[in-house]
């Protein structure tokens, strides 16, 4: 079977399970269509993917579940959803199936479809290099190619002879290497002559509940040392906005402590801030790309942490440190996330020379700029072409 020509119709199956996957899926769809206009998309995705022409099998919010305990609670419905996807894809017989992130949901689907003769690609490597490393063998059986956003991920797969392609990160393409702060001040209504610490406790309810209270107590300690320092908290949507306001009210902060709470605009907050205190995750990568000094913290529920700490195999958990292969930024995990330690580290961060750190962030930024959406699209089509020739 020859590689489909530009006049040949291609059907691509896609499954994205949360907002970040929806963003990646939509950009991949646009890039695929640019390379092959006669292309159709089926599967599961959010509003961005639907705007690109995907007709969803069901709402992708059905798959957006945080934490091991919550996954266990919702396991029956997740298993039903997986069976629905597999049945649908076996009936549709797409030319290639791309599972976008959500590895515990997508990789078993990929394994079943690959066994049935459908070419499979997994877009966004799971953190197999960090924990549950034996998953690499299941991934090898399930996928024809793993598309890696980060270079150290491909290096891991290469050690096990698992086909993988480093495609770069869409955020590195989207964010300019140098950023002007003035537009961020204007967008947020801030005085550029003042100093600001951004507080970003996460986008999920559980993250905010665990991290914002110690962040606020640290803000009180910092305010005592520097009454002129102000704080900015971006809320990821209206629900988080209400939650953040409730937690700030409950904290009974000093009237002289100024906190700006905004809905959305996290990128503007990180650009305007002199430094940020944030939850671990993609937001730490975004702060690095914006060249903002950061302190990275994370807390799990006691049960989730008891499970995860036995599985983690890496020395660092924040993306800037993983990319650098060393401790560029300070990380605080679980019991180390105390108001006193947060305030101490933030105070140090606000007063140390920043240019050496910014220079290292810039080097890492450039290493991730590969036009990720186009690179991913080319990798998907190359994987399909290789399967057609075999």
Walk me through what this model shows.
The protein is α/β, with parallel strands linked by helices. The protein has 2 domains: 10-168 and 370-389, 3-Layer(aba) Sandwich (Rossmann fold); 182-367, 3-Layer(aba) Sandwich (Rossmann fold). The protein is built from 18 helices and 13 strands. The protein has helices at residues 19-35, 47-51, 68-73, 75-92, 103-115, 135-142, 151-159, 170-174, 182-188, 205-225, 238-251, 266-272, 282-289, 302-308, 319-324, 339-351, 355-367, 372-389; strands at 10-16, 39-44, 55-56, 96-100, 119-123, 145-148, 164-166, 196-200, 230-235, 259-263, 275-279, 294-298, 330-333. The strands form 2 sheets. It has a 7-stranded parallel sheet with strand order 3-2-1-4-5-6-7, sandwiched between helices. Strand 9 (230-235), helix 11 and strand 10 form a beta-alpha-beta unit. Helix 10 packs across helix 11 and helix 10 (205-225) packs across helix 16. The radius of gyration is 22 Å and the shape is elongated. The chain starts with 9 loop residues before the first strand and ends with a helix. The model has no long low-confidence stretch (mean pLDDT 89).
């Amino acid at each position: 079977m020859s590689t489909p020509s530009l006049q040949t119709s291609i059907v691509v199956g896609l499954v994205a399970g949360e907002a970040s996957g929806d963003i990646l899926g939509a950009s991949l769809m646009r890039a695929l269509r640019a390379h092959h206009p006669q292309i159709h998309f089926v599967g599961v995705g959010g509003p961005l993917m639907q705007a690109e022409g995907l007709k969803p099998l069901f709402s992708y919010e059905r798959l957006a579940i945080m934490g091991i305990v919550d996954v266990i609670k919702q396991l029956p419905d997740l298993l039903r959803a997986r069976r629905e996807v597999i049945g649908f894809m076996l009936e549709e017989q797409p030319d290639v199936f791309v599972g976008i992130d959500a590895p515990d949901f997508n990789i078993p689907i990929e394994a079943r479809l690959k066994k049935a003769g459908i070419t499979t690609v997994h877009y966004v490597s799971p953190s197999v290099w960090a924990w549950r490393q034996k998953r690499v063998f299941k991934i090898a059986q399930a996928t024809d190619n793993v598309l890696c956003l980060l270079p150290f991920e491909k290096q891991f797969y290469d050690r096990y002879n698992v086909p993988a392609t480093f495609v770069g990160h869409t955020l590195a393409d989207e964010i300019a290497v140098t950023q002007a702060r003035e537009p961020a001040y204007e967008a947020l209504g801030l005085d550029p002559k003042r100093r600001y610490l951004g507080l970003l406790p996460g986008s999920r309810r559980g993250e905010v509940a665990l991290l914002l209270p110690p962040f606020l107590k640290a803000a009180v300690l910092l305010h005592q040392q520097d009454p002129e320092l102000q704080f900015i908290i971006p809320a990821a949507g209206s629900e988080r906005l209400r939650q953040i306001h409730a937690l700030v009210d409950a904290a009974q902060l000093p009237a002289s402590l100024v906190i700006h709470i905004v809905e959305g605009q996290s990128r503007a907050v990180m650009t305007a801030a002199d430094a940020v205190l944030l939850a671990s995750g993609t937001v730490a990568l975004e702060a690095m790309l914006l060249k903002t000094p950061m302190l990275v913290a994370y807390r799990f529920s006691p049960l989730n942490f008891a499970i995860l700490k036995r599985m983690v195999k890496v020395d660092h958990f924040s993306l800037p440190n993983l990319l650098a292969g060393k401790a560029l930024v300070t990380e605080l995990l679980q019991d180390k996330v105390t108001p006193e330690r947060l305030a101490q580290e933030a105070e140090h961060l606000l007063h140390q020379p920043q240019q050496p750190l910014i220079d290292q962030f810039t080097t890492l930024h450039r290493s991730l700029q590969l036009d990720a959406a186009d690179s991913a699209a080319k990798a998907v089509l190359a994987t399909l072409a290789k399967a057609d020739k075999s």
